[in-house]
Amino acid sequence: MKYPAPTQREIAEVERAVGAPLPGALTALYASRGNGGFGPDYGLLGLGSGHVTDQGDTALSLYRLFNTPDPESPGWLWPKHLLPILHLGCAIHYCIDLATPGNPVVKFDPNGFGPDDTWDGAFTVAFPRLELWLGGL
User: Fold this and answer.
1) Each residue of 18-43: b (16+ CB within 10 Å) or e?
2) 46/57 Cα distance (integer angstroms)
3) Distance separating alpha carbons of residues 67 and 43, to the nearest angstrom
4) pLDDT tens across 10-60, in order?
5) Partners of 92 in the beta sheet?
6) pLDDT value of residue 125
7) Which fold has domain 8-134?
8) In this structure, what are the phi and psi dihedrals at residue 107, rounded to the nearest 5 degrees?
9) For residue 27, which phi and psi values (nearest 5 degrees)?
10) Looking at residue 73, what is its pLDDT?
11) Closest to 77 in 3D by CA, of 66, 86, 91, 87
């Protein structure tokens, strides 16, 4: 299914929530291909509407969910400028680091981490620059 491109209002809402601008290469991709549903695995997520996960989440709703404190895991803290953008399955996501030059793509894999472990190991750089990753889409 092809989704209409995200609106400027939708893009601005994501940028306000995350506190950083979306990279031009990413917004250009969404403008040309639509609001998610394309790319590897389960397809890029829509920003605030468009393509959703099997749980009905967009990139923005996942970001907000991940930023919610977890009383069962007091060490849980989602990185402020990390936007989930692709669901890989089994609660694993690719995310874009909007605070680091080049906007690395970070793999978030919560499996094996929990209340007694540090969450740092759940985040690894999968691609050092967003544009390298986007080139494969």
Assistant:
1) bebebbeebbebbeebbbbbebeebb
2) 9
3) 22
4) 999 999 999 999 999 999 999 999 999 999 999 999 999 999 999 999 999
5) 89
6) 97
7) SMI1/KNR4-like (3.40.1580)
8) -90, 125
9) -65, -35
10) 81
11) 66
